[in-house]
């Protein structure tokens, strides 16, 4: 009998490894020196991050209101609206993550891209973290930043494929008597390059819109999106997108049949890789408009989520298999909705904080380091801790 042992082609091995979770990749680095070299290669790590980010992540991150700590949530594979809802069953597990030598309290999760997450502290500091590897980098403050006590600001985080760079965009404007009617001409636009570790301000500002609800930018297709107001209207009436490659603002057409006067009650989301608008009708239904073809106005389609009368606020987070939507309810619960039969139920999440006012965001597992470009910068990659 032959001692021949079949060997898979290297291309097939790489393709299989690219589809594994980030934690598994980290463990497989110990298999051999060739695997350590392959799984540490920058091209492999980027390809792995991009591939996983293109699928529904099944992982969420949020900030607890009670103690300002970060928590990640992992869904169980069998989560569905038809699952047994007995007390012994869990739909997901929440775990607190912490970083040594990080004294600030977390305030809000700003954005997520390719498994990296931008988080702001109660002192207005920004950190770029990897919730999987527990690495972190503190973003240097911008010397020209407006005084926080006399201004409003919002951030967005995304990836510029043209320059192979992750960027942070900050929109800020001075405080006025009415925060819902800011002066559009006074909107400052600042951009931070993770690759070069530098800030820059655009002068004159490329933005003739304002973002009155202080929402974080929603990243999709190389741009950060905000519901915004133009010079003639104080309430949000357009979708403004800041393109990271050209570093300029453009507009994305909203649904033609949507009452723009109701934009102030809306939220932007990304569902299955498509831009969406959540319309709260303040009744027993929430409408969700989804743009099937990016920047094609005719491609907007609508579906409706039935909500219970005791619900004050509902925001879809992601879409799962079998036409099911995970939503955040009243900043304290996660709810699962079925678009097939209109049923819904509260999810059973072990360890979920009591409240999370600043929302829930998805992320994907990755080995991509927030220090990826910062070879000559101070490294903050000490191991963190995950509490069971």
TrEMBL record:
The identity of this protein, by name, is F-box/kelch-repeat protein At3g06240-like
One matching Pfam family: F-box
Check the record and name the SMART domains matching this protein: FBOX (SM00256)
Concerning InterPro entries, the annotation shows:
F-box-assoc_dom_typ1 (IPR006527), F-box-assoc_interact_dom (IPR017451), F-box-like_dom_sf (IPR036047), F-box_dom (IPR001810), SCF_F-box_component (IPR050796)
Q: Which organism is it from?
A: Coffea arabica
- Locate the F-box domain: which residues? 8-47
